[in-house]
Amino acid sequence: xxxxxxxLFGAEPLFVLLAAIAFFKSGxxxxxxxxxxxxxxRASSLVFLEAVYxxxxxxxxxxxxxxxxxxxxxxxxxAAAVAIFFVVQEVFRQVLEPVPGLRRLGLLAFRWISIISAxxxxxxxxxxxxxxxxxxxxxxPIALQMVxxxxxxxxxxxxxxxxxxxxxxxxxxxxxxxxxxxxxxQAALELVASALQAGSGLHSAMNLVLQVTTTVALLTWFxxxxxxxxxxERSIIVLPPQSALARWNALANGLxxxxxxxxxxxASGFFLQDIEGVVERVLAKNPAVSAR
Length: 292
Fold this sequence. Notes:
By secondary structure, the protein is an all-alpha fold. Helix content is 77%, strand content 0%. The protein folds into two domains: 2-252; 263-291.
């Protein structure tokens, strides 16, 4: 079991590289720049961590290699979580492309909920009890809280795609669904692992399951980006006007428009117009006056 885990961990950079190559060769980088950033962050962090871990023998004690691996691991953990946050937002925006009104309101709600959730999650770490429980080590709890928060977002994204992707004119063959599927699988296992590892001794077994899930997610992305995407998935989706989503989108567009207020002309303009009308009527009734 330990050998399989080490084998998958050592092969993870290769799987990430294969998925990244398939992603960039498919031409999706221009459409999904946040995912491109995620692949770059993940690949570079894995290369650094495995170089520190394997070069020079086992890591022992509080040496320079231990410090480099410790902080490199947690910094890359946080960087990947931030990149995933923007990937989730990016996929959400792409799926809602046929309904720009609903997309605008949805992104607004998404950002506010994200800000409030992040403040609550990070604020809980600053409590005295949390600091005492972690012996003053802040980077680990902060990174774990961020990853748990982003994991919930990934699961919500997968659920949203699974339930409503057909309503937006796409199918499970869409690369957007494949992205959400890979992230959702990893997020679900990470949440389960964090719950089990807190109260049981399933650390090594759970790590193996996590590594297997990570490998499956990377191979899923590789398959979605290698296989040609159907033409209807790459074209602009136009919803029929009689659909419920189109009506909701029209309502959302109306909510974003400022009402038109009729501006009254100044009173002096009406006064001058009245005087001109009186003069014209007087001249019409007295042609002799006008002849002078």
